[in-house]
Design a protein that fits this description.
Helix content is 35%, strand content 18%. The protein has five helices and five strands. It binds zinc ion (3 copies). One zinc ion is lined by residues 71, 84-85, 87, 91, 93, 104.
Length: 142
């Protein structure tokens, strides 16, 4: 279970100023535990701060993803963010397309890839598996 303390500590470890705004951002993700679009985060932030710009919120989300506080996924071509899994090892995600519940999957296809051609250096990669979780699988079709 990730707590606010953990997130705040990680921010300071990266030399961030832990502002009230960033704490609120962290809390939004702690409360939600599922995917949020930048727009949804922005709307929730707007309840606390007047005159906050969407760009500022989006920039903060990108930075939070860079230092591993939150994770990014693309669902229906929309970029969404959620709290980082408790899983510390490099992992990927199984995402339920119905309820958007996410499971960490400690497996990396790159570990099993052949050598890259033309001395290509991989810097990052994406691998997400979309499907139905156990609960959604059992729901009778309506
Ligand atoms: Zn994860
Ligand atoms: Zn589901
Ligand atoms: Zn990987």
């Amino acid at each position: 279970m990730v707590r606010l303390d953990d997130l705040v500590r990680k921010m300071s470890e990266h030399g961030w100023r832990v502002t009230d705004q960033r704490k609120t951002l962290a809390n939004i993700f702690l409360e939600t535990q599922s995917y949020l679009t930048p727009r949804e985060v922005y709307e929730r932030m707007g309840r606390h701060y007047n005159g906050l710009s969407y760009d500022t919120v989006y920039r903060n989300l990108r930075s939070m993803a860079e230092i591993g506080l939150i994770e990014q996924a693309t669902l229906d071509d929309v970029v969404k963010f959620k709290l980082h899994c408790a899983e510390h090892h490099h992992h990927h995600h199984l995402i339920c397309v119905k309820c958007e519940k996410t499971f960490s999957f400690v497996f990396c296809p790159l570990d099993h890839a052949p050598p890259m051609p033309d001395q290509f250096t991989a810097l990052s990669h994406k691998f997400e598996v979309y499907g139905l979780c156990k609960d959604c699988n059992q729901e009778p079709a309506s």
